[in-house]
Amino acid sequence: MDPEIPVISLIEMGIIRDVTVAAEQVSVTMTPTFSGCPALLEMESLIIEAVQTLGVEQVVVNKQLNPPWTSDWITETGRAKLKAFGLAPPGMHGGNVTMTFFDLVECPRCDSKNTKLQNSFGTTLCRAIWVCNDCLEPFEQFKPL
Amino acid sequence: MNNALKNALLNRLIGMADDELILSHRNAEWTGHAPLLEEDIALANLAQDELGHATVLLGLVEELNGKTPDQMAYFRDAAEFRNVQFLELPKGDWAFTMLRQYLFDAYETILYNRLLTSSYQPLADVVAKFRGEEIYHLRHSHMWVERLGLGTDESLGRLQAALDQMWPLTAQLFQVSEADNLLSEEGVFPLAADMADEWQEIVLPHLANCSLHVPTHATMLLAGRETHTHFLNDLLTDMQQVARWDPSAEW
To answer: Which site from A14, A20, A139, B168 is most exposed, i.e. has the minimal number of CB atoms within 10 Å?
Structure first.
């Protein structure tokens, strides 16, 4: 599970890129989301713990920076879970984040598109703050990256 | 990689990391003091991103010189830092902070684009990552320069005063040493001087659109990255004191 969004798994987040099993050892390749994300170390230990629970003792976590993580990698199931959690999922952008700057984001509570961006920086590095003009609730969006 | 090339690369990596680290600290000084709650949050985010970039870059430094990011950040004195001077100046007012951020974000955007094709793969990998984050920084500071420049007489006056003070210091971003030629020939790091035109093509039209006048007779700062103002000492005293109280402490 993602330490900051405890409803979505690291696989659904697109953070786990590869898993290889060789003899006694399991290697997991992960790609960090944001460079300054404080949850990075926590994610690493969660991965090791999860694999060890399966009875494997030797677990290696490799960090791969290139290709860089993009929010396009969040799976369909992952997006639905983000929305149910109250976080509007990021728009797909195919590598050009600025394209999403013109999109209105759907309110995760009432599905209205009558919303406005309040702050492109939020309570964590990966969130922006929006307000819904229909149900009048503020909500957070997972930032397109 | 031979020693001359390695030292030249180390020098550049430390310069990039120190720029991020020092600006991060200045931005973090706004936490709890920004003029709007939204901006308080935004500045904390910028500071955290920059600190993240500094940490990643210092990781690359460690691979070359064996010193940990903590040793580099907390146990070097001012004379060993390689950030440019305009990033170490006190945070000043909101206009100064936003203009500094804008001028530096535009520079970083160009630098990252060029470094994407660096022949030093670890560096190309990390800037590919930074680039997506930097888009948000530049958009934010670009918008604030516009808002202040086209705002009131007071906001424009403050922004112009900040530009008059800062403009001569920006020349330091584009200085090159002899060792830099080596890096450029090997495709490791672009010649900083070659980026000056591209940077001006981005910032000059925006500054003009925001009613600002770039000083025409200013004496540009030609000192190298090893020279600093006393403000860096003050900043480091603040930033490093807890780590230095007990170097063996575990965090």
So the answer is: A20
Do the domain assignments include residue B250? no
Q: Residue B79: which CATH number?
A: 1.20.1260.10
User: How many residues are listed for chain B in this entry?
Assistant: 251
Is CATH 3.60.15.10 the classification given to domain A1-69? Answer: no
* Domain count within chain B: 1
In a domain, B144, yes or no: yes
**Could you tell me the pLDDT band of residue B177, with boundaries at 50, 70 and 90?**
confident
| Residue in B30, B133, B250 to test binding to A, most A beta-carbons within 10 Å | B133
Place of tokens 């005293």: B237
Cβ distance A97 to B135 less than 8 Å, yes or no, reads yes
Instruction: Please tell me which residue of chain A has the smallest CA distance to B56.
Output: A35
Assess if residue B251 is contained within a domain. no
- Domain spans of chain A, in order of start: 1-69, 74-142
Which tens digit of pLDDT belongs to each residue from B107-166? 999 999 999 999 999 999 999 989 988 999 999 999 999 999 999 999 999 999 999 999
Look up the ipTM and state it.
0.80
Give the up-direction half-sphere exposure of residue A105: CA atoms within 13 A in the CB hemisphere: 32
Residue B193: domain span: 3-245
Higher per-residue confidence, A95 vs B203:
B203
Q: At what angle do helices B3-28 and B94-115 cross, to 10 degrees?
A: 150
Query: Could you tell me if B57 lies within 8 Å of chain A, comparing CB atoms?
Result: no
Question: Cβ contacts (< 8 Å) between A120 and chain B: which residues?
Answer: 42, 136, 139-140
> What tokens were used for A83?
């929305």
